[in-house]
Amino acid sequence: MNLTTTTLPALPAFAWALVALFAKTSLTSLLQVVSRARAGVFPIAEDARLMRGRSVAAEAPFVQRCANVWRNDTENLPLFLALALAYVLLGAPAASAQWLFGAYVLIRYAHTAVFLLGLQPWRALLYLSGMTVCWTIAIRVATLAAG
Fold first, then answer.
1. Is 91 exposed, middle or buried (0-12, 13-18, 19+ CB in 10 A)?
2. Minimal CA–CA distance to 126: which of 115, 138, 140?
3. Separation between Cα atoms, residue 50 and residue 103, nearest integer Å
4. Which of 26, 68, 91, 135 has a CA between 20 and 30 Å from the CA of residue 107?
């Protein structure tokens, strides 16, 4: 018996979304570290000493932008992942999970890009698009839970 195809058909879609979002946040973190090193300024004195940089009170502007993307992800991704997991565990159809989870992942990648570039209103529109996907999943979860 194959658990992923018989009892939880949407589990592979969840796994791919989880890995894709983990990769995105890891790349954001790496970009932050590289940007901090290139700027040569560090708000933590021991980091400045280690990297032979300058100790400053605040991060470089692009490093702050990366930190804002990271914070936004830590606020939004857990909610999506919880909803997506509930949807999977309630027996979501594979096709709808693939579409919804894939859309959310693409939206979050685009959101990160426009956030890093400082592009409004695109950032707000992408955020709202991601929330629309989450609300769609939430409604489907509630419907499945109600039987």
1. exposed
2. 115
3. 41
4. 91
- Residue type, position 11, single letter: L
Does residue 28 contact residue 74 with C-beta atoms inside 8 Å? Answer: no
pLDDT in tens, 26-80: 999 999 999 999 999 888 889 888 888 888 888 999 999 999 999 999 999 999 9
> Could you identify the residue written with the tokens 């300024």?
41
- Using CA atoms, how far residue 137 sits from 29, 66, 79, in Å, is 28, 28, 11
Exposed, middle or buried: residue 83 (CB in 10 Å: 0-12, 13-18, 19+)?
Answer: buried
Q: Classify domain 17-25+61-146 by CATH architecture.
A: Up-down Bundle (1.20)
* CA dist., res. 129 & res. 104, Å (int): 8
54 beta partners: 41
Which DSSP symbol is given to 44?
S
Neighbours of 42 (CB within 10 A): 22
> Domain ranges in the chain?
17-25+61-146
